[in-house]
Every structure is written in C-alpha cells, then in structure tokens.
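User: I'm putting together a small comparison set for a docking exercise, and I want a reference complex before I start. The sequence is below, and the ligand is adenosine-5'-triphosphate. Could you produce the 3D structure with the ligand included, as structure tokens?
Assistant: Of course. I'll restate your input first, then give the structure tokens for the complex.
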Amino acid sequence: MSIEQQQRPALDASAPAPAAPAPAGDSVLAARGLSVWYGSTRALRDISIEIPRHRITALIGPSGCGKSTLLRCFNRMNDLIPSFRMEGGLEFDAEGISGAEVDPVTLRRRVGMVFQKPNPFPKTVYHNVSWGARINGYTGDMDELVERSLRRAALWDEVKGKLHRSGLDLSGGQQQRLCIARTLAVEPEVILMDEPCSALDPISTARVEDLMEDLKDDYTIVIVTHNMQQARRTSDMTACLMLDDPRGSGHRPGVLAEFSPTDVLFTTPKDPRTEAYITGRIG
Ligand SMILES: Nc1ncnc2c1ncn2[C@@H]1O[C@H](COP(=O)(O)OP(=O)(O)OP(=O)(O)O)[C@@H](O)[C@H]1O
C-alpha cells in the first residue's frame, strides 16, 4: 500500500480500515441495482455498472435519461436535493458509500467534480487552486501545490504571471482548466465531469480533451457528454443510458441500455436502442 493510500481518510470513521486496495485495472466505482427518484418521479431504474480504474468512461444518452443524476450519485451530490431518494447500492473501492455513516464531504475529496459551466470563485487564481487544500488542512508547501496543480491542468504557462489576478478574468476555457486544477489540488482519485466542454469553443475543448487523456494514468474519469464525437475521441468505455420503454405509467426513467468498450459501442453496438441513439434515430 502506498503512503498516499495509507493517508487516505476513511469514509466511515467508525469502520475498520479497508482491506488492501484492489489491483489496478479493476473497478473503482460501482452502482448495483440503483434506482433514483425525485419526489414521486423515478429518474433511474435498476442501474448496475462498474467504472474501471484509470480509464475514461463516458455516459451518453438522450436528454433526461439520468446521466447527470447517475454521475452525481457517485459523490453524493444528489444529497443536496431535498426530493432525492435512492434504492440499491453504490460502492467506492468496494466500500458502500450510500449509508448515513459515510461522510459525503470526505467522499467528495476523493471523488471530485467538474461542472458544465466553469465556476471559479471570485478570488485570485492562486486562491481558487489553494482553497480546497487549505480547508482540508494541507500542511505542505502551498506554492508548490498550486504550481503543480496548474501544470497538471495545462494552465501554468498561461497564468504564472497572473496568479494574484481574479480567476474570473480568465477566458472560459482557462476558467474550466482552473476548475480542473482546483479539483486536482485536493488530490482526488476520481474526477466526475458533467459536460465540461459544453460551454467551450473547439480549441478550448481540444485542450480539455488532451488534458483528460494525460490525467487518466493517475485518475479515473467519468464524463457526461452530449457530444458523441467527444465520447469516441476521449473515452475507453461508454455507457449508453436510455429512457425506458414508454408503455406503462407515462413516466420514463433512465435505464442502462449498454456498457461496452467505446470502439465496440460505436461500431457494433449490441443493443438496438444504442444503435438508434448513435445514428441519430433517437434524440
Ligand atoms: N433536482 C431535480 N429535481 C427534480 N427532478 C430532477 C432534478 N434533477 C433531475 N431531475 C429529473 O430527473 C431526470 C433525469 O435528469 P438528469 O439531469 O439526470 O438527466 P440527463 O440525462 O443528465 O439530462 P440532460 O442530458 O438534459 O442534461 C429528468 O426527468 C429530470 O427532470
């Protein structure tokens, strides 16, 4: 076990120390028979999926099929929505993460998130990056952490001369990479990305995509995208969610139609619903 792993905070402080970490190449996150409701509306039905470690997994599917809901389950962001309710299991490193004994704040340190719209704080570039580490009580060299995180996010060269200017003065693409640097500074194991490029121009999008490729040696990435070319370009695995068959109650929760290696899903999809979606016959 590495020093870094030994120092990871336990999700449930009262739980015994977890067993030795699973070998690389296995799954890091899992949903098992997951169903989600917002009030009386079911958003997801019986989703089972294992997210492979150190790979990029794309979640695709038509609007409203529950991609963001599934993504947010993985770091308990849905807990912030009062009408949210779930059944089934969620695991991180083979430990359950949906129980009341799990501290969502600790979980979110290990499973970070980048949002659709770049959302830097109205603070300096430096403070944006150092903020999470500071509130987590980081005792190392903060200047070094800020530089390392900005370099890792492929932003250092563009901002090294303006670390003490507002993060809001950066371009949209730079702001999104600043948000990625902010996430990296907390040293998570997984990065959840909810349509991270939808507000970016093609050049900024390409930068973020290159960055994802660069990061996957050290992190597991799960990305929600509407852009099928982006899923094809960036991901190793793709999960296609679909709205359930319309017969019945009238409401259509999201279901998992297919989870396959990306090249297989886009060339020889196993499920006819996946084929209909990727060929544009289901919007
Ligand atoms: N906070 C919420 N309160 C109530 N219902 C919600 C909430 N968030 C999502 N939903 C509902 O849950 C379902 C799934 O929404 P979700 O945003 O997860 O889908 P999505 O596939 O990510 O959609 P899109 O591609 O349009 O972003 C939809 O019917 C949506 O209206």
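The first strand starts at residue 27 and ends at 38. The pocket of adenosine-5'-triphosphate is lined by residues 38, 43, 61, 63-69, 81, 83 (CB under 6 Å).
User: Thanks, that's exactly what I needed.
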